[in-house]
Design brief:
- The protein has 320 residues and is mainly beta.
- It folds into 2 domains: 121 residues, YerB-like (YerB-like fold), CATH 3.50.90; 137 residues, 3-Layer(bba) Sandwich (YerB-like fold), CATH 3.50.90.10.
- The protein is 10% helix and 37% strand.
- It contains 4 helices and 24 strands.
- The strands form 4 sheets. Strands 3, 4, 5, 6, 7, 11, 17, 18, 19, 20, 21, 22 and 23 form a 13-stranded mixed sheet that branches. Strands 12, 13, 14, 15, 16 and 24 form a 6-stranded antiparallel sheet that branches. Strands 2-1-10 form a 3-stranded mixed sheet.
- The radius of gyration is 18 Å and the shape is globular.
- The two termini are 30 Å apart.
């Protein structure tokens, strides 16, 4: 029997999953509502902004994140917004600066922690007013250090474990409506590889029999902390509206603003299969529903990568 871990009420979960050929049950083991992994319920959720250019790789303990968002920044590059809930490693990074789109993602949580290495002046003022706990350098007892094996600015590392213990006022993670199943529902299309592209960046992956082995800019990734391949259990290509925010970096680059509130198309990859889906997030305070024919499609238990791809000519994606 397929065991579905969900954080909806049991009647709602049953109604949503039966049409996908699965049997539902309510999780009672304290699993994370972000990944279905054990130990996350009732703990904080921290977003860590992580650099995503060549000199910043391999990333350290990115494999410990529950959800990894990839978002476009200036110059068509991308940056990572990693959400940690079920595990807080002693070293995460390299940490880089915040962007305006991070705040809309964080609105779905109650007083989340936000770890970043700075921002432009306008954004810093906005962050200071946002309902979150700032975890930048020098704030709230958060611990950072430099990795001497890398050059600045690609070497700022966060002791997430110690920082979570020292920072005050971080809220417990909340249910954002995701469901999880150890077995894929019926109706998927066999898929071996995927690729999502932005003007100057890409994320791709290959099904290895147990997960999606991640490649960044066509280079297979290994976690620096473990030496093991970075593998996602679920990958979502989420097509989003993207405009210019009116903000920018110190080099004159213009910052995109990504709308994660709204609705649109999505492609969900798990267990070597692809599901053509829809996403919907009616307000900043709500989570995102991923559905097929109106029924929630469960993610696999484990880390998910959510790739925020522009729904215009600047964003491209493919599956084989």
């Amino acid at each position: 029997m397929t065991k579905i871990k969900t954080f909806f009420a049991s009647a709602i979960a049953l109604a949503l999953t039966v049409s996908l050929g699965a049997t539902a049950s309510v999780a009672s083991d304290g699993a994370s509502p972000l990944s279905g992994l054990p130990g996350g319920a009732g703990k904080p959720v921290i977003m860590v902004k992580i650099d995503n250019v060549g000199p910043a790789r391999p990333h350290t303990n990115i494999s410990k994140a529950d959800i990894v968002y990839v978002e476009q920044v200036e110059g068509g590059l991308t940056r990572i917004a990693a959400l940690y809930n079920s595990s807080f490693p002693t070293k995460v990074g390299p940490v880089r600066s915040a962007r305006i789109s991070d705040l809309e993602i964080l609105e779905q949580f109650d007083k989340p922690g936000f770890a970043y290495s700075g921002a432009n002046k306008a954004l810093l003022k906005t962050i200071a007013k946002a309902p979150l706990v700032r975890m930048g350098p020098g704030l709230n007892g958060v611990r950072y250090s430099r990795d001497s094996s890398r050059r600045i600015p690609h070497n700022l590392m966060l002791d997430l474990s110690a920082s979570v213990k020292r920072a005050k006022g971080i809220g417990a993670v909340k249910d954002i409506g995701l469901t999880f199943s150890e077995t894929a529902p019926a109706g998927g299309k066999a898929t071996n590889t995927f690729k999502a592209q932005w003007p100057a960046s890409s994320v791709s992956g290959k099904w290895n029999g147990s997960g999606w082995a991640i490649a960044l800019d066509n280079k297979a990734q290994k976690d620096k902390a473990t030496g093991k391949a970075v593998v996602a259990q679920t990958v979502v290509v989420q097509l989003v509206t993207q405009t210019l925010s009116g903000q920018g970096d110190k080099f004159g680059g213009r910052t995109p603003k990504i709308k994660t509130v709204g609705s649109g198309k999505a492609f969900i990859l798990r267990d070597g299969q692809r599901y053509d889906a829809e996403w919907s997030r009616p307000s900043g305070g709500s989570g995102t529903a991923f559905t097929v024919n109106g029924a929630a499609l469960p993610f696999d238990i484990g880390q998910a990568w959510i790739l925020l791809v522009p729904n215009d000519s600047k964003g491209k994606y493919s599956f084989k």
